[in-house]
Amino acid sequence: MLSRWLQNLTTTHFALRRHFPPATLSAIDAAISASEREHRAEIRCAIETALPLGELLRGATSTARAAEVFAGLRVWDTAENNGVLVYVLLAERSIEIVADRGFEGRVAVTEWEAICRDMEAAFRGGRYEAGTLAALERIGALARRHFPGGGEGRNELPDRPVLL
Known about the structure:
By secondary structure, the chain is an alpha/beta fold. It has helices spanning about 1-10, 15-20, 20-35, 55, 60-70, 110-125, 130-145, and strands spanning about 40-50, 85-90, 95-100, 160-164.
C-alpha cells in the first residue's frame, strides 16, 4: 500500500509530458479518428497522471476510477451504447478498458484484459506510443467486427485524448 501511495504522490505531470508528448497525443487522436471511420463505435482515451489524493484516501482502484472517468466523460452517451474508454493511470502503469453495454455479450472480458496486459507490457518497455496505438488498433478491430460500417459524419465523442 505504501508503494502505491508513493507512486501516485511522486508521479508528476512531467512524466505525463515525457511519455505522452504532443506528437504522441496527436498520433492517438489520428488513430481514433481513422478507426472510427471504419465502424460505428466510439473510442475515448483518458490518461491520468496519478490518482487524486481523495481517491487514494478512499482506496479507489484503477478499475473504479476508470468507471468514474467513463461516466464523467459521458462515454456511455452514444446512440448505440457502443462507447469504449481506454483509461491509463500513469503512476501505476495500469490500464483499464471500459466498454459500454453494446459490447456486452459480444466481446469477452478476457479480450479486453489481454489488450490491457499487452499495453502494460509495452509501457514497461518504454513504448508508450506504440503500445497505445496497438491497443487502439485491436479495439478498432473488435469494433469493426461488432459494429461494422463507417461512422462518417457521426462522431459522437471527441477523439483527442483527455489528460487528467
